[in-house]
Amino acid sequence: MTATTSSSAATATPSPLADATRDEASLRRFLHGLPGVDQVGVEQRAAGLGTRSIKKAAKLWAIDTAISMVDLTTLEGADTQGKVRALAAKAKRPDPERPDTPQVAAVCVYPDMVETAVEALRGTGIHVASVATGFPAGRTSREIKLADTKIAVDAGAAEIDMVIDRGAFLEGRYLEVFEEIQAIKAACGSAHLKVILETGELATYDNVRRASWLALLAGGDFIKTSTGKVSPAATLPVTHVMLQAVRDWFVQTGELRGVKPAGGIRTTKDAIKYLVAVHEVAGEQWLTPDLFRFGASSLLNDLLLQRRTQADGHYSGPDYVTVD
């Protein structure tokens, strides 16, 4: 992820948006003054874009692009150093028999596994991401969240995926959420910050739009749908709302921020629907791993199978790729 893809902490927020974060009342007024989301409209548009047909040459490009956008992830209590090293090996060479297969964007692990991942990926250009801030529930003190972040950054993580306090957000304590994101962003140093909204717990599209803008105002480099631990996780309509937010942010500020749908995206067909949405809702500029990611490790297996099918003209079967 390059420094040009997002605002850095040093980038000044334009005055009207800075005024929005002066105090709780100003922030509430700004967030509740955002245009409401047309639920029927956004769901119909998402369904319509999902029916677009992709021709063979474009499909191969889409598959390679999707592979390059994957954050290959293991976030289990039974994670071991050996499992992380194996995941790193797959990240470097997703299909060992096809050396022209793109590498993935990042490997995402818990903070205590960052050092192992960094060592395994050194010199590859693949980023090491780490969840932090009491992932996935975030039900711990800010001091512990900051310490969690520091552990990951000190171990070499280039990206931090934090969870917002959904309870505080749903109770309307927007400034508290804003200040916590700001504090985590500062603790990241040069690492990029992905802000997980856990959209499945936000109940409405209007809340998704408000949470997206809140994260952007606080300095998040990416807004991310989900932890993958709550259902529903990523959906096309929710991702549309978030893509609209980063597009509108860019129009107002000139700053590029990214979007990461995570959880529930398992097939190449699904991935292509998301890429179409990126192109049509945000714009072609977002069709890069610097600005769009998939948090979906099982997706990679299907992408690799479909890539072989496109290249060879016949279905290869699941035994030709490793299963996560």
TrEMBL record:
SMART domains: DeoC. It comes from the Bacteria. Residues 1-19 have a biased composition (Low complexity). GO terms for cellular component: cytoplasm. It is an enzyme of class 4 (lyase). It catalyses: 2-deoxy-D-ribose 5-phosphate = D-glyceraldehyde 3-phosphate + acetaldehyde. Its EC number is 4.1.2.4. The keyword DNA repair does not apply. One of its GO terms (molecular function) is deoxyribose-phosphate aldolase activity. Residues 1-21 are annotated as: Disordered. GO terms for biological process: carbohydrate catabolic process; deoxyribonucleotide catabolic process. SUPFAM superfamilies: Aldolase. Keywords: Lyase, Schiff base. Belongs to the DeoC/FbaB aldolase family. DeoC type 2 subfamily. This is Deoxyribose-phosphate aldolase. The lineage of its organism: Bacteria, Bacillati, Actinomycetota, Actinomycetes, Pseudonocardiales.
